Amino acid sequence: MSGEELQLVKEAFDSNYIAPVGPMIDSFEREFSEYTKIPHCLCLSSGTAAMHLALLGVGVGAGDLVLASTLTFIGSVSPATFLGAELVFIDSDEDSWNMSPSLLAEEIKRCVDSGRIPKAVVPTDLYGQCADLEQILAVCEPYGIPVISDAAEAVGATYKGQSAGYHARAAVFSFNGNKIITSSGGGILASHDKEFIDRARYLSTQARDPVIHFEHQEIGFNYRMSNVVAAIGLGQLRALDTRVEQTRAVFKRYEESLSGLPGLTMMSEMETGKCNRWLTVILVDEAQFGASPEAIRLALDAENIEARPVWKPMHMQPVFKGTRCVGGEVSERYFSTGLCLPSGSEMTGSDLDRVCSMIKACRKPA
Predict the structure, then answer these.
(1) In this structure, are 41 and 73 located in the same domain?
(2) For residues 331 and 213, what is the distance between their CA atoms, to the nearest angstrom?
(3) Residues 232, 179 share a domain
C-alpha cells in the first residue's frame, strides 16, 4: 500500500457511497484515463469481465473465430468461450515472448482463404511487456479485424511512448491482488470510442434502461466495481510510477546477480517499449546450468520462497484439448524452461540476495 488508500477508503465511507457507484469510481476512471491517455475508461469487477464486455462490444458471438495468444492466463481467453466463439491460439515470437505477428498473418490468410474472417484478435502483454501492436494492427486492419489488447499484466508499461493498449480497439487492465497495483480485485476497460464504453457500461449494470422503474430489453451483467474498491485502486494508481520503478529495480538486481551464470537467461526488454517488469522471469537450460527449473523451484520452496513456472500455454490446457494452435514450440519451450521469481515491489536487497544465493546454490557445473 502507498499509504493514501486508507484515507481514500475513509472518504468513501464518509460519503456513504459503498455500492457500485460514487465519487471514487468517477475519480479512478478519470485519473486512469489521464494516466494512459485513453479517453474513455470503465471500472469493472475484474479484468475477465472487461474482456467479456470488450468481445461483446466488437460483436463476437457463437461460432465466430477469435485468435488469441497461447502463452497467457486463462482469463484472457475464457470470455470468448462464454460467447460460444471458436478460439485459435497463436504462438509467441522468440524476442518479445508475445503473439507472433508473422504467425498471426499466416493464420489470418488461411482463415480468409477458407471464407472465415476472424471476429477479433486478442494479444497478451506478457509479464508486463507490450506485444508489437503496430505489426499486429498492420496484419488485422486490411480485413477490418478489431484488436482487443489484453494489458492485464501491463499497467504502467509503454509501447512506442504510449500506454499499453493505447492503439487497440479496446484495452483490458487488471487490478487483481497479484498485479503491480491492486484494488484487491477489479479491472478497467478502456477505449478511444465513447460509444463503445457507454455500451459496455450499460451492459455492466444489468442492461437496465434509463427509466424510473426496472426495465430490461436485453440481458446484461453485474460487472460493476464498488466505490470502496475504487478508492483502493485510486490510491494505488497514484503510486504506479513508483511501483514500476521498484519492480524494474528488482529485475535489475536479479539481472546483475544472475545473468552471468551459464545456462540462465532473462526475459529481454524490447526496444519498442518499456516493460513494467511485473514479474522477473528466467529461462534455465538444464544441461548448462546443472539443475532444472523445477529443481530450483523446489529448493526455493523448501526455504519458504515462492516461485512458479511460466504460464502453461492455453493449447496445452486440458480444457482446450483439440483447439487449433498455430506454432506452439516457442511457448512450450518457455513453459518447460521458465521460472517466475519473487518480484514484489517491496522486496529488499537482502530478500533478493537470499533468492539469488539459493538459485546459485542449485547450480551443478558439468
Answers:
(1) yes
(2) 51
(3) yes
Q: What is the pLDDT of residues 148-175, one digit of tens each?
A: 999 999 999 999 999 999 999 999 999 9
- The count of domains in the chain is 2
User: In this structure, are residues 65 and 170 in contact, taking their beta carbons and an 8 Å threshold?
Assistant: no
The last residue of a domain, from among 204, 219, 239: 239
Same domain, 58 and 198: yes
Are 119 and 66 a contacting pair, CB within 8 Å? yes
How many Cα atoms occupy the beta-carbon half-sphere of 333 within 13 Å?
A: 13
Distance of CA 18 to the CA centre of its chain: 28
Residue 35's CATH number: 3.40.640.10
pLDDT digits (tens, 9 = 90+) for 47-90: 999 999 999 999 999 999 999 999 999 999 999 999 999 999 99
